Amino acid sequence: MATPQRGARLAALAGIVCFGLAAAGCSSSPSTAPGGGGASSSPSAKPTGTANVAYASSLQYLNSKVVSPAFTKAEGYTFSGRSGASGELEQDILSGEISPNVFEAVGGDNITPLQPKFTAWYVQYAGTSIVVAYNPSGPHASEFKAIADGSKPLCSLFSSALQTPALKLGRTDPNIDPQGRDFIMMLELAQSYCHLPADTVAKILSTPDFGTSSSSQIYAESSLDATLQSGQLDASSAFITQAVELKLPYIKLPDAISLGSFADAAAYKNATVTVKSGKTYKGSPQVIDITTIGSPTQAGIAFVRYTLSSAGLAQYRQGGFTVLTPTVLGDAGAVPAPIKSELGG
After folding, report:
1. Same domain assignment for residues 107 and 146
2. What is the pTM of this model?
3. For 36-81, what is each residue's pLDDT tens digit?
4. Beta partners for 128?
5. Over the range 96-115, which residues count as b (16 or more CB within 10 Å of their CB) and which as e?
6. Is the domain of 101 the same as that of 238?
């Protein structure tokens, strides 16, 4: 049994120990950094997490070869990408088949159906246009090259070259892919621009049903360029950015029909495509849009911010895109602060 004197000595000793611990900033409870989970709050801590990005196949080369390694080096987060037709990715997100934290689409009409459940906003930041790419070793290469360099009139592309019997032409499905619709609308604009017969587009597409997805001309966007490069096609639809990045020879089209000029936006609306669902699309300048999906993650926010930064936009410019002033559409108040600060907000 402890004596009163011994108890007093123990109490004093305990007080000295507690005083020493307090002076050293120690505590008997575990230390927890801000944010919980025992994570370190040190500014030198390496970011963790993955930017899981679903993106249009026309961005495949840029994202896989250029943006993703530069993003990881600059921000520290890893990158995981899934490419596909913008409309197909939209449906996969709606159905819950995929759960990316970022979505990059050609055209905002593939993002607005996701509102308000998956996102409330998106940013337009780059533009592109339609071209006709061709196989430099194919039997029709000399004719396409002559049109490309101006030796033959551009309108002969539509009046004869693309209507050549046995020509192997590739394009994408207009029901799920903006490029598939853009190619058809470009042909409609060209038919008017070149004052060609009313059945010109139907002859080039080998069908009067522009919304069909069963044509032998139709390929997945992710495989169309490779099919052309392999020599299985003579010509194909393409965005100019794909042709530039993949070094595909191509025929550049005038602004009046390329769907790449904001000055011609009103005229583009004269071209329309009605798909199997009954929805009718009107021609418009082609833009690239980006948004976060679901509850924004730090990695997802970092990827969007990086894409819209001067370094990110420079990569798009070098890839043949027209860089636009990033513009928010939808609920600007829902844009995460780090992204808004990159926009000057």
Report:
1. no
2. 0.83
3. 333 333 455 678 899 999 999 999 999 999 999 999 999 999 999 9
4. 286
5. eebebbbbbbbbbbbbeebe
6. no
